[in-house]
Structure formats: structure tokens, C-alpha cells
Amino acid sequence: MMFSDAFVAIADPNRRYLLEELRRGPKTVNELAAGLPVSRPAVSQHLKVLLDAGLVNAKAEGTRRVYTVSSAGFLRLNIWLDQFWETAPGE
């Protein structure tokens, strides 16, 4: 299920950091790795988890991949979460 994958993806503090950085604008793996105490390959693995969960997008620009937040992925997550804020019948 996409939502469980998304929740697993955002459970990791390094991945939350990556999402917060990407919220500020598109970035490459090297730019993202500069702010984390983990290796560049580890950052790539974290980005793959976020990609698989539909929370980020990647676009090739020459030999680099540029990552951005996936608005569609977060919209699906928000729609699912919003159902819990609605008043249940009988409340």
C-alpha cells in the first residue's frame, strides 16, 4: 500500500531532512549529501526509498539527477490523512 510505504519512508530522520531540504527547492544528491553525516551512496538509498514511496521525483539533467518533492505524492497522503480530521457520525 502506498500510504504504509510513505509512512515508512518519512519515519527515518535522514529522509525527513531530505524532504525538508527539497521543500526549499530542487537539489542534486551531492547538494543533499552536504548537509548529512552519511555517505553519498547512503543519501542515494534514502532518495530511492522516497522515490518508491512517491514522495519525490527525479529528473535527469546531463549526468546529474535533480530531485524535487512530489506534490501528487503528498496530495494523496494529505487526502488520506484528512479523513481522520472529519467528524465521525454520531460525534
Characteristic key phrases:
alpha+beta, three-stranded antiparallel β-sheet, elongated, 91 residues
Structural class: alpha+beta
Unreliable spans are: none
Strand order of the largest sheet: 1-3-2
Average pLDDT score: 90
- Termini separation (Å)? 29 Å
Keywords: DNA-binding, Transcription, Transcription regulation
InterPro entries: ArsR-like_HTH, HTH_ArsR_DNA-bd_dom, HTH_MetalResp_TranReg, WH-like_DNA-bd_sf, WH_DNA-bd_sf
Protein name: Metalloregulator ArsR/SmtB family transcription factor
Structural account:
The structure is a single chain. This protein has helices at 2-11, 13-23, 29-33, 40-52, 71-82; strands at residues 27-28, 56-61, 64-69. The protein has 91 residues and is of the alpha+beta class. The protein has a 3-stranded antiparallel β-sheet with strand order 1-3-2. β2 and β3 (64-69) form a beta hairpin. α1 (2-11) runs antiparallel to α4 (40-52). The longest helix has 13 residues, at 40-52. The mean pLDDT is 90.
Give the topology.
Blueprint: H1 2-11, H2 13-23, E1 27-28, H3 29-33, H4 40-52, E2 56-61, E3 64-69, H5 71-82
Antiparallel strand pairs: 1-3, 2-3
Helix pairs in contact: 1-4
Domain HTH arsR-type: 1-89
Organism: Mesorhizobium argentiipisi
Pfam families: HTH_5
In short:
With 91 residues, the chain is an alpha+beta fold.
